[in-house]
Specification:
- There is one protein chain.
- The protein is α/β, with parallel strands linked by helices and about 325 residues long.
- It has three domains: about 100 residues, Helix Hairpins (Orthogonal Bundle), CATH 1.10.287; about 130 residues, Rossmann fold, CATH 3.40.50.720; about 60 residues, 2-Layer Sandwich (Alpha-Beta Plaits).
- The chain is built from eleven helices and ten strands.
- Helix 2 runs antiparallel to helix 4 and helix 3 crosses helix 4.
- The longest helix is centred in the N-terminal third of the chain and has 37 residues.
């Protein structure tokens, strides 16, 4: 039983550590032998071990040299065995390092960090989002899961890439979802809307099954699938088609000279939205008074939510009521 347990541990040890252990044992073995054979030349066992490493590494400082025939035979055996072991260890170390870099680029390595963002889908939207995250949260790590991309270079894109299907538990666990901060699931616009939404919903179910409290932001293309995405466990639904349709409408027909797309883009980049519950002392007050009050706190009030209905830019004399939720923007 003990031998079987030792074998199991041994075979689980990485090859680099196995080689390092063999090198250390070999150097210690030869160092101790030369110490006992030539105690005058090698007063301590450490002196012998030092000589063994220097000799096997072909450095040859010459501070310790065996003088007797027996000692020189030991030196020959050390060169034939230890020298090869050290050379093999160094070459294996180089090979392992190179393989790890390749595995990282090819998405085979699991992520072991924490408080990171997980992006499902590698596309122009996630690339632009990556730049924004790195600009505003430079210390935040990003994990990208995609089954269509075969390689991502870290130097070009500073993310941890995992190649695989985001609906499978093995892939999700590689992304270390247990310690993630948030998940963003983007729709695959190369598929038709129903297929893309089905995959997004299946991914949401898989993510929620692995982490019950994690915020999950899911992009849905069709209105018919919004309820399914909510039932699947999505915390927030991004209705990209609705947003783009409204934006197209503004571009087609706006009375005043403006650039709606650029305006909204800069608003989202430079400011962040925040919902604030109406303070008790501002109930039954006018909207203009509420705006002035929040401006002093660094918030710009755009409108309010009352009974799940949105009212944007109400009249200045609009009377605020209890349980109103203020829609505000503020600096990042």
């Amino acid at each position: 039983m003990n031998i079987r347990y030792i074998k199991r541990i041994y075979f689980r040890i990485p090859i680099i550590l196995k080689l390092l252990m063999i090198v250390l044992i070999t150097m210690i073995f030869f160092g101790i032998i030369i110490h006992f054979i030539e105690p005058l030349q090698f007063p301590t066992a450490f002196d012998g071990i030092w000589w063994a490493f220097v000799t096997a590494a072909t450095v040859g400082y010459g501070d310790y040299v065996p003088l007797t025939p027996t000692g020189r035979i030991i030196g020959i055996l050390l060169i034939l065995t230890g020298g090869g072991l050290i050379a093999f260890y160094i070459s294996s170390l180089s090979t392992t390092t190179l393989k790890r870099e390749q595995d990282l680029e090819n998405g085979r390595l699991a992520f072991h960090g924490h408080d990171h963002f997980i992006f499902v889908g590698w596309n122009e939207r996630t690339r632009q989002l990556m730049k924004l995250v790195l600009e505003y949260y430079p210390g935040r790590r990003i994990v990208v899961i995609d089954k269509t991309v075969n390689k991502l270079t870290y130097k070009e894109y500073p993310v941890h890439f995992i190649q695989g299907d985001a609906t499978e538990d093995d892939t999700i666990k590689k992304a270390n979802i247990a310690n993630a901060n948030c998940v963003l699931i983007t729709a695959d616009i190369t598929k038709d809307e129903k297929q893309a939404d089905t995959y997004s919903i299946m991914t949401t179910i898989a993510m929620r099954g692995n982490h019950m409290t994690l915020p999950i932001v899911t992009e849905i293309l069709s209105k018919k699938q919004i309820e399914n995405a909510i039932r699947a466990g999505a915390t927030t639904i991004i209705r990209s088609n609705d947003f783009m349709s409204s934006l197209f409408f503004h571009e087609l027909d706006h009375l005043m000279q403006a650039t709606p797309f650029e305006d909204i883009d800069q608003l989202l980049v430079q400011q962040q939205f925040s919902h604030q519950k109406l303070p008790l002392d501002l109930e039954e007050e006018t909207f203009s008074k509420v705006v002035n009050n929040f401006l002093h706190q660094g918030y710009l009030v755009l409108g309010l939510i009352r009974d799940d209905a949105y009212t944007i830019h109400p009249k200045p004399d609009f009377i605020m009521e209890e349980n109103d939720i203020l829609i505000t923007i503020t600096n990042w």
